[in-house]
UniProtKB/TrEMBL annotation:
Coiled-coil ranges (or none): none
Protein name, UniProt field: Ktr system potassium uptake protein C
Naturally occurring in which organism (per UniProt): Lentibacillus populi
GO MF terms, alphabetically ordered: monoatomic cation transmembrane transporter activity
Gene: ktrC
UniProt lineage: Bacteria, Bacillati, Bacillota, Bacilli, Bacillales
Region of the whole protein represented: 1 to 140 of 221
Location of the RCK N-terminal domain: 2-118
Listed GO biological process terms: potassium ion transport
Domain of life: Bacteria
Length: 140
């Protein structure tokens, strides 16, 4: 089943999501403010565009309103991440997933209406810790 996704921010996290979704045959619109990042994804995503996602008019022109699931993978620039999320919630996107940089960022994202907030480093740390415990149990 083909579904529409947009990934905003093509760093290690967003880039990896964009790559995997595309490899699974999904339609992905890849967006980044950085031209080099966008060029990297030209042959991977269905569409790759240079854009500032905090700009409401730009996102509208890109047809973001018609996309089912938008992933905001801007980490370092918390202000840009929050502004982008506000614009997306105003557009009533079906599902918005946002990467949080820290607990305060996560709290704000939840308050402004992000459907799913992920904290990759923390979540992966937890998974690996559980993995280590279960492997140790099997070793005994
Ligand atoms: P990661 O931890 O996923 O590797 P990173 O540290 O490489 O992230 P971040 O600063 O978290 O990079 O940003 C991820 C991407 O988001 C970058 O490629 C950056 O150019 C992009 N980005 C930042 N601000 C905007 C914006 N306003 N609009 C679109 N893209 C943006």
């Amino acid at each position: 089943m083909k579904r529409d996704f947009a990934v905003i921010g093509l760093g290690r996290f967003g880039g990896s999501i964009c790559r995997e979704l595309s490899m699974e045959g999904m339609e992905v619109l890849a967006i980044d403010i950085d031209e080099d990042k966008v060029n990297e994804f030209k042959n991977i995503a269905s569409h790759a565009v240079i854009a500032d996602s905090t700009d409401e008019a730009t996102l509208k022109d890109l047809g973001i309103k018609n996309i089912d699931h938008v992933i905001v993978a801007i980490g370092d620039n918390i202000q840009a991440s929050i502004l982008t999320t506000v614009v997306l919630t105003d557009f009533n996107i079906k599902k918005i997933t946002v990467k949080a940089q820290n607990d305060y960022h996560e709290k704000i994202l939840n308050k402004i209406g992000a459907d799913q907030v992920v904290h990759p480093e923390r979540d992966m740390g937890k998974r690996i810790a559980h993995n280590i415990i279960s492997n140790n149990i099997l070793d005994y």
